[in-house]
Amino acid sequence: MIRLMKHFQANFKKRPLKWIVRLSIIFACLMIGVGLSVILYAYMLGAPPLTNTQTTVYYDRESNVIGEEHGVENRYWVDLEDISPNIIQATLVTEDRRFYDHVGFDVKRILGAAWKDISSMSMAEGASTITQQYARNLYLSHEKTWKRKLKEALYTIRLEMFYTKDQLLEGYLNTIYYGHGAYGIEAASRYFFGKSAEDLSLAEASLLVGVPKGPTYYSPYHHYENAMTRKDQILTGLYEQDVITEEQLFLAKKEHLALFEEKDRSTKVFAPYFQDVVLKELQQVLGKNLEDIRSGGYQVYTTLQTDQQETLEETVVKTIDPQTELQTAALAMEPNTGAIKALVGGKDYEKSQFNRVTQAKRMPGSSFKPFLYYAALENGYTATTPLMSKPTNFELADGTVYQPSNYNGYYAGRSITLAQALALSDNVYAVKTNLFLKPETLVETAKQFGIKSELSPVPSLALGTETVSVHEMVSAYSKLANGGANITPHTITKVTDAKGNVIYERDTAKQEQVLDPKLSFILTHLMTGMFDESLNGYMRVTGATIADELTQQYAGKSGTTQTDSWMIGYSPSLVTGVWTGYDNNQAIEKMKEHQYAKDIWATFMEHSHEGKPLETYPVPEGIVGEYVDPSTGELATPYCENERLMYFVEGTAPTSYCSLHLPPDEEQKEHEHEEETEKEDKKKGFWDWLPFVGD
């Protein structure tokens, strides 16, 4: 080898020109050979399809189609002759001026872009022809890698080999993405201007041609000024290429563009807020961007229970006065798995796509109290732990005084139990408990339940004065409903590719236990008290207005602030949370508007459990049940007016019997004794009342 190299060097020095010619011929032959091989390979592969039928489809939990990601109504195929010449001319001038002259690659543009890429050591410059863009849109991702570029080149050769230029231009214009779920010029024309692509004016066509470069950045709905600037640049390009006259340029730039209003679109999407959540989750589980998902042909199997979704939407419409600006958010979840079965993010998706389940944060009010009472149970409280319910001033560490108040200023004026405090939503009891445990404990407990929103460790946190989302609250309640296991809320169970190959499947392994199952059960049973009028005291239980509608044993808690109304409750198989309020934090002044959340919740839960057997919460080992007098917290006797079954960890149940309600004869003796004492007191003279004074 060394001798050969020396021989080559010696001959090259003697006759350099001859060897340069020889090497050039060899290199050219190699390149021709590679080129012919690629062409032969492309020919053997055959003609690729001109349309992309890889629509991503969403299914409910019964495998019924519920939607398509930018579905059929957003994909219209029109012939080239049915597309306005304004669109065709603007597209060619803007995207590929030599489209009809090259064979798929614009060598001049490629060399210029390559030089800039090499100079900057990046792949920022693009020199894609219409055919190359078409190949990428149909078959490939939009990542900038050499591997993808090589695949793009092969597809480009195949397209140019088997189809005419008009066919390629037609296909390109029918598949390019214009934003807002509109694929193809016909879909874009209908979406933006409410007309067919053949009727577009020069100005309208120029605006649409500018959108694909950045479907969000150049959307006239999102960035109007950007879209108008881009439109004028395209018009100027048409003038400079002598496609339009100076007069046409002037008139087109001055033309008023009447964009199609959102309210004029009649397309309805089923469970649109739910589908938005699915799309966001799909990006996370697949690790792909929106463009890849749109062209991926994925089959997405979701957790949606269609009949429950329909019930929830119908209930919202029937319950809330259509004349009010009051908004709502509702979420139904399977507690054992975290599967989201129904979701409503607002009253009208067409008017507002803001998802109040996942995006809004509001004060939960007393619906936050279960986290406090779980912490209390962890720290020695039981269902019968008594605390005084009366107006109380709390002097805080910084010297300030905090005085919480109960609803309408009602107080028991005596000690009440935890069971009654939760059922009646006594605020004084809650704040006393929070200060006894320390507010930092409540913050940590809320985190244990999965609350991720920032919480301040203040006394009023017990009354739900920090802001959280409906999604967080329903997820947290699910941990109580399932006995304390951690769950991950989700909308997707499985994803397959267009050929049915599973590319993602949710792990159904048993979740980590994060709460004590005994305390979770006790708290769950205590939360059934909001519907049990045996716990009535200085006021009725908070769920009394809907208790007669309920046929299952539900656990729950309501919450009311000046601006928010909540109802969250569950059975062993379903957790549902409903919020109502105004987007601008306007005060809820009408009583019926405060009732909406409870009414929606009760109607939905009953419909969801219709025809199902009575569900019960399994009692963990180490738990005992005792019938207790709600007024005293002592063991009930046959003489108590009311009694309620309450649960305790073994060794913590009350042992004394009710001393307030006595047998009839004992009550009579007690009454007679009181009367005799009163008579004796009346017989005493003045001196009899003076204390004895002795030596």
From TrEMBL:
GO molecular function: penicillin binding; peptidoglycan glycosyltransferase activity; serine-type D-Ala-D-Ala carboxypeptidase activity
SUPFAM superfamilies noted in UniProt: beta-lactamase/transpeptidase-like, Lysozyme-like
Main location as per UniProt: membrane
Membrane-spanning segments: 20-44
Catalytic activity reported: Preferential cleavage: (Ac)2-L-Lys-D-Ala-|-D-Ala. Also transpeptidation of peptidyl-alanyl moieties that are N-acyl substituents of D-alanine; [GlcNAc-(1->4)-Mur2Ac(oyl-L-Ala-gamma-D-Glu-L-Lys-D-Ala-D-Ala)](n)-di-trans,octa-cis-undecaprenyl diphosphate + beta-D-GlcNAc-(1->4)-Mur2Ac(oyl-L-Ala-gamma-D-Glu-L-Lys-D-Ala-D-Ala)-di-trans,octa-cis-undecaprenyl diphosphate = [GlcNAc-(1->4)-Mur2Ac(oyl-L-Ala-gamma-D-Glu-L-Lys-D-Ala-D-Ala)](n+1)-di-trans,octa-cis-undecaprenyl diphosphate + di-trans,octa-cis-undecaprenyl diphosphate + H(+)
GO cellular component term, pick one: plasma membrane
Ranges for domain Penicillin-binding protein transpeptidase: 329-605
Protein location: Cell membrane
GO BP field: cell wall organization; peptidoglycan biosynthetic process; proteolysis; regulation of cell shape
Bias (Basic and acidic residues) ranges: 663-686
Region (Disordered): 663-687
Glycosyl transferase family domain sequence ranges: 65-236
Keywords on record: Carboxypeptidase, Cell membrane, Cell shape, Cell wall biogenesis/degradation, Glycosyltransferase, Hydrolase, Membrane, Multifunctional enzyme, Peptidoglycan synthesis, Protease, Transferase, Transmembrane, Transmembrane helix
InterPro entries: Beta-lactam/transpept-like, Glyco_trans_51, Glycosyltr_51/Transpeptidase, Lysozyme-like_dom_sf, PBP_transglycosylase, PCN-bd_Tpept
Family to which this protein belongs: In the C-terminal section; belongs to the transpeptidase family.
Name recorded for this polypeptide: Penicillin-binding protein
Annotated organism of origin: Aquibacillus koreensis
